[in-house]
Design brief:
There is one protein chain. The chain is an alpha/beta fold. The chain has 2 domains: about 5-130, HUPs (Rossmann fold, 3-Layer(aba) Sandwich), CATH 3.40.50.620; about 145-269, TPP-binding domain (Rossmann fold, 3-Layer(aba) Sandwich). Helices cover about 25% and strands about 25% of the residues. It has a 5-stranded parallel beta sheet with strand order 10-9-11-12-13. It is elongated and about 60 Å long. The two termini are about 40 Å apart.
Length: about 270
């Protein structure tokens, strides 16, 4: 956790706007002289990080799945080619600006309450030229995929979109959310909002159940930090089996309904 939290309560931050956010962070960086500035790899942060790097003349590494310090520099692991390869990228100069994929690291305990410091840097009118005209939030009663404690993801081994309700039933019984591999999203079986992986969402649930998913790096980079990984697959040699804590070999269309029934019986028992 953080030891110090810097807070700017200027009215410009009542809603997210990139320009005043960049002004505030740039002023803080110039004052504190950090070795690195880390952002979550989110749409808002990408915009601020890019502006900050341009303003400071600093290097920017995006989509990092790991980060380490070597010989006085920061080196990030960045997946590419759809997640099939991982490059080591070195940030030249300071500060290093790095956009890190969400859920890539486990939160560490700070050992106490963070100190809160107010930032009084004024935000000029030139930074308030844009404003949010309207914000539309998608309403859903389901558990958000990235926040779920249990995630059940389906791949081509599910056989078709008509079988994904089996995963919905299991997720409902476990209080979890349903995800998917890129292959089934590209095939049009499920919407992109369900995609887990390099070009989708990163998740870190307590339990991740991969159903009919082979385990290509493009997918596993988005779920590899899950605490417990369970794989259900017909192929005992599928790559996902090597990283799973528990592997079940068999027909997913038979195993999943049986598992759902067992969970419901346990809850009602």
């Amino acid at each position: 956790g953080a030891k110090v939290v810097h807070v700017n309560e200027d009215a410009a931050f009542d809603d997210y706007i990139a320009e005043p956010a960049t002004d505030a962070v740039a002023a803080l960086v110039e004052q504190q002289k950090p070795d690195a500035v880390l952002f979550g790899f989110t749409p808002d942060s990408r915009e601020v990080a890019g502006r900050l790097a341009a303003r400071l003349g600093a290097g920017l590494i995006a989509n990092a799945s790991d980060l380490s310090a070597r010989d006085g520099s920061f080196v990030a692991a960045v997946p590419y080619f759809g997640g099939s390869k991982v490059a080591s990228m070195k940030a030249n100069g300071k500060p290093a600006i790095v956009l890190v994929r969400p859920k890539s690291f486990e939160a560490s305990e700070s050992g106490g309450t963070a100190e809160v410091k107010q930032i009084d840097t004024p935000i000029g009118d030139s930074s308030k030229r844009a404003h949010i005209a309207k914000r539309v939030v998608e309403a859903s009663e389901k558990v958000k995929l990235e926040d779920a404690r249990v995630v059940i993801s389906g791949g081509r081994g599910m056989g078709g979109p008509q079988n994904f309700p089996l995963l919905d039933d299991l997720a409902s019984a476990l209080g979890g959310a349903v995800g998917a591999s890129r292959a089934v999203v590209d095939a049009g079986w499920v919407p992109y909002s369900m995609q887990v992986g390099q070009t989708g969402k990163s998740v870190r649930p307590g339990v991740y159940i991969a159903v009919g998913i082979s385990g290509a790096m493009q997918h596993t980079v988005g779920m590899k930090t899950s605490k417990v990984i369970i794989a259900i697959n017909k192929d005992a040699e599928a790559p996902i089996m090597k990283m799973a804590d528990l592997g079940v070999v068999g027909d997913a269309l038979k195993i999943v309904p049986a598992l759902t029934a067992a969970v419901k019986a346990k809850k009602n028992g």
